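Journal club prep, shared notes

We agreed each person brings one worked example of a sequence with its structure written out as tokens. Mine is UDP-glucuronate decarboxylase. I'm keeping it raw so we can talk through how to read the token line rather than staring at a rendered picture. Sequence first:
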Amino acid sequence: MATGRVDLDGNPIKAMTICMIGAGGFIGSHLCEKLMNETPHKVLAVDVYSDKIKHLLEPSSTPPWADRIQFHRLNIKNDSRLEGLIRMSDLTINLAAICTPADYNTRPLDTIYSNFIDALPVVKYCSENSKRLIHFSTCEIYGKTIGSFLPKDSPLRQDPEYFVLKEDASPCIFGPIEKQRWSYACAKQLIERLIYAEGAENGLEFTIVRPFNWIGPRMDFIPGIDGPSEGVPRVLACFSNNLLRGEPLKLVDGGESQRTFVYIKDAIEAVLLMIENPARANGHIFNVGNPNNEVTVRQLAEMMTQVYTKVSGEAPPETPTIDISSKEFYGEGYDDSDKRIPDMTIINRQLGWDPKTSLWDLLESTLTYQHRTYAEAIKKATSKPVAS
Ligand code: NAD
Ligand code: UDP
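Then the structure, token by token:
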């Protein structure tokens, strides 16, 4: 069926059925929303959780997408229904993964199984049934920059050749095996190589996405509110939690690592272009990030504190930040990526995509959401009388 939509080359786009694995997570929830609101495509949403897409599955009135999204609660580790769902679809998008750094060194087996072993049947079913696959990898696949091995005062550290990360040229540089932080990156690297080989040897039509710190509403959880009290989410949720509770933000190893952050809504535009432009996206690996939004983690903490003060009307914590060692925060075996600047040449050339939202603006909308969603719940949780 034609959709009235045209691709980047002016050809009509046909409505498709998409098997989205990990649809109930942060990225999946935004992608489902986009597909329901702006396209006629159908989604078979696969996950073990559905809280983040509840508003799409059980809306208060009948929305135009009512018959276009179906939730399938299943664990892809051990469910024979998976192949049937992939066969029923034109495209499979695999987002399922353990992808919080606090797990990489403390649950390395689960991390490796989730990011490599559990993804194997997905690749196999797509290849055997000649179905297109969009697989979510990570920017962490690049590991450390070449520049990080140069002397601290070397002028070459300022040369982009030594730090900009290019899909088709940069090496993947991980630490030693005892630094189990790299279990995730290594598992993601091997599944990328397997998908690439399936493309080369068996003709699998694939696209690999390497997200560079996508952030926004619904990312992870707030410990003790909608996730475990002792849980350690990714940095946006850690710092949001600190701000909501009026506590100092914890800077791991001084907060010197650098990251580029992209707004989830910008990044989802890139994924939709991949979905609807297979001729331009197949066979490619894409960095998806915002090279203009680079900060150190310390600068991120400072900016989040300023933005939160503005959106909440509350005074900043008396001690805004404290330093903590990575060993104390994450445990043995943690290591870090020093700097992550995506090269944008390939995505720009193939899909004409560029990120738009500045770091300040994306933090303002995200922290407005965090405050609206969690401030009351935190107040209630912290004012409960202690049992005697
Ligand atoms: P997320 O944890 O919010 O979402 C992952 C979803 O997969 C969760 O809902 C989880 O329940 C589901 N899942 C995991 N294992 C499953 C299984 N065995 N069966 C069924 N469902 C399962 O994470 P996210 O941020 O949305 O990330 C999605 C993908 O993007 C991951 O592959 C991740 O490695 C990659 N990625 C994301 C970022 C980012 O900036 N958010 C950065 C790098 C890579
Ligand atoms: N980090 C921090 N304090 C926190 C949480 C994270 O200083 O409370 C640091 C972490 O050590 C890393 C960066 O923030 O250098 C980004 O961490 P995140 O968990 O978002 O994932 P990563 O970008 O490393 O994949």
